[in-house]
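Cross-posting from the modeling subforum.

Setting up a comparison between two proteins and wanted a second pair of eyes on the formatting. Protein 1 (sequence, then structure tokens):
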Amino acid sequence: MTGEPILPRSYSPATVQREYARVAWFYDLWGRWTEDRALQRLLQLADVHDGMRLLEVAVGTGRLFARLVARNPTGRNEGIDLSADMLARARRRLARRAPPASYRLQEASAYALPFEAATFDILVNTFMLDLLPAEDYPRLLAEFARVLKPGGTLALAYFSYGTRRVHRFWYWLARHFPTLLTSCRPIRLESYLEQAGFRVLHQEEISQNTFPSAVLTAQRGV
């Protein structure tokens, strides 16, 4: 599978908002079936501890963000998402689990993060880049690097090609029936990260119910 190209995708904010409004009601079920192992491993690798300045880009329904806030109760916790429907679910989840003063959620785009340069110790992003055009990765990763402090950590999880024959099914599905996966597809990021000035610290593959994910941590150059 390593020789397969990254499938082309287009980007429209309105389309993304419409698609995630459609799937928001069952997205947590999908995540528990396919993504939980990757998120748990990323949480371990990210080494979040209290007092950090943390940003999660594309919080979705807040499944990971709630756990990040719990590990950083007196730090700064910012979360953004483009989908108002997903954010509504995230707000309900966080309202049950964390004091309002311990976090902030807002609707915003990953292409133009509403934060000053060199603000955050860590930026977390999961299962977003695999939705977007590969030609946009330099711009997105540059924006991630902009808001991270020098030496800051980027923690990513994304739809990968996998390493076993069974993983090929997901590439086939993404190629022939993309709407079933909200246009997500397997991607590779190593070369894009290097070009954006990141140094990969750790990368591994996770498979859950045959769905392949990569988890990766990288450090912004100083």
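Protein 2 (same layout):
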Amino acid sequence: MSTQKGKVLLAEDDLSLGYVIKDNLTDAGYEVVLCPDGQTAIDKFDKNEFNICLLDVMMPHKNGYDVAKKIRQQSDMMSILFLTAKSLEEDKIKGFQVGADDYISKPFSMQELLMRMEVFLRRSKKMHSETSLHFIIGKLKFSYTDLKLAIGDQVFNLTQKEADLLKFLCEHSNRILKREEVLLNVWGKDDYFLGRSMDVFITKLRKYFKSDPEVILETIHGVGFRFNVPLNEE
């Protein structure tokens, strides 16, 4: 069986569901390491190289949020997708806050899961294969390729989703962007919940921009945003 599509860390305490997911992903060409609880997932991540992590939220020993936090401490570039039975908006928002790139609600089709995974894996491969992509944002230097935002000696490590959002803002700076335009280009679709999660990431980016008061991510109420960046006179 070819595993050229990548290696998957799957953390799911419902082993019946876990084995169904694992079998389907294996048939699709992935190598899958199935973990029955959060602590096992952390241990496996420490000892193996993975391309993407699929994490259930509610698990014994360590929940999905704890696992995501541990993964993010070691890697900003790892794609993390939550498999969640929770429908509460607050739980999904929390997932993005601890570093998730996306979520998929149970019950889900394997086709939908495979499509979501392929989006992140294609993006990751493109990042590693393309030439370095950098932006000057006032006094800040942003490396999309390395997921880093720097000002002087201070360096901020970005998650993939933070970098995707910032890249889109940089490419469309100093003009009004509609909320739905940002959502469609960065998240792939426009809905109420993803709009709330986008606001979480907007807040995170604004904290970084405090390092340069001339860089302002402005909210245009009822419309969207404008990323005000000083023009480079060089």
